[in-house]
């Protein structure tokens, strides 16, 4: 328990460093975007690939994957229905659905998995499900609702498969499954780049908190409650009652369910000009709320 809580402290300190860098503008204008792109395009894909070189692919596609998928779909569908009952139209409710269940598994999930779960590979099923299935299907539905003449599932799947984190994960899984030896000239540079992922991602998050202003509307509060509380509870109940998981496996799935709303949701909202305020505010609020929630989860379910 002490080790896990110490890990939280490490995360908070590195985030604080990023916040100070952003607050003082020490790295100059445009630094946050440049560092964020470095994390997204290079460092985190390298980390995922590096991890998967030593991970059995069967560990990825296990009961954990099913719990992750079903818990996200249940929480998301609940968000969709509740927002519809509150008077939101279908496209706005779809964005709310994503905000209720689409986790920040890359930029924040990876470092949190390292320090809380001691296993960065734990987030890979989340990334695979969200990027390869959840996002393409939802975006296609939004296309149809917007009566887009170019709407089709194939285009959105192709777009999803341009995600560097998904490509790195799939490449690592393929190499692991086929047991292809990776030469040192490739594995060592990848390992070096992977080392930059966690600290950079946390500092970028800290920089993003500078000047963040949110409006805690009823819809935002509802979606945050679903993402930060209902989603991990659903994941825990499914893991325990449907799949008989307990101990570290149960703890891992509840932590993954408690991850905050991903920034991708705001990207999708901006793309369709739909419920942008909800997506932005939920991303910020759910991230701040996720830390005390994760501390509680750790106290209740964490190791020793």
Automatic annotation (TrEMBL):
The chain crosses the membrane at residues 6-22, 34-53, 65-83, 95-117, 123-145, 166-186, 192-210, 222-243, 249-270, 282-302. InterPro entries: Mem_transp_PIN-like. It is a multi-pass membrane protein. Signal peptide: none annotated. GO terms for biological process: transmembrane transport. Keywords: Cell membrane, Membrane, Transmembrane, Transmembrane helix, Transport. This is Transporter. It comes from Corynebacterium marinum DSM 44953. It holds the Pfam family Mem_trans. GO terms for cellular component: membrane. It comes from the Bacteria. It is found in: Membrane.
């Amino acid at each position: 328990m002490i080790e896990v809580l110490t890990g939280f402290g490490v995360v908070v300190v590195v985030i604080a460093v990023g916040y100070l860098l952003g607050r003082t503008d020490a790295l100059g204008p445009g630094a946050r975007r440049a560092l964020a792109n470095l994390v997204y395009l290079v460092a985190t894909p390298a980390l995922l690939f590096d991890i998967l070189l030593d991970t059995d692919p069967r560990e990825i596609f296990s009961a954990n994957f099913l719990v992750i998928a079903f818990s996200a779909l249940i929480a998301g569908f609940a968000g969709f229905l509740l927002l519809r009952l509150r008077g939101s139209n279908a496209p706005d409710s779809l964005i709310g659905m994503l905000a209720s269940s689409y986790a920040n598994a890359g930029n924040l999930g990876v470092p949190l998995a390292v320090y809380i779960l001691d296993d960065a590979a734990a987030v890979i099923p989340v990334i695979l499900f969200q990027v390869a299935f959840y996002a393409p299907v939802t975006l296609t539905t939004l296309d149809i609702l917007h009566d887009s003449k170019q709407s089709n599932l194939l285009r959105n799947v192709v777009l999803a498969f341009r995600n560097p984190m998904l490509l790195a994960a799939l490449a690592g899984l393929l190499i692991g499954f086929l047991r292809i030896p990776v030469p040192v000239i490739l594995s060592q540079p990848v390992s070096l780049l992977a080392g930059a992922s966690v600290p950079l991602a946390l500092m970028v998050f800290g920089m993003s908190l500078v000047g963040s202003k949110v409006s805690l509307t009823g819809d935002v509060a509802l979606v945050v409650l679903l993402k930060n509380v209902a989603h991990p509870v659903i994941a825990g109940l499914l893991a325990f009652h449907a799949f008989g998981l307990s101990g570290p496996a149960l703890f891992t799935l509840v932590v993954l369910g408690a991850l905050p709303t991903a920034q991708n949701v705001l990207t999708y909202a901006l793309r369709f000009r739909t419920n942008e305020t909800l997506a932005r505010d939920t991303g910020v609020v759910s991230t701040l709320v996720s830390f005390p929630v994760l501390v509680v989860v750790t106290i209740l379910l964490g190791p020793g």
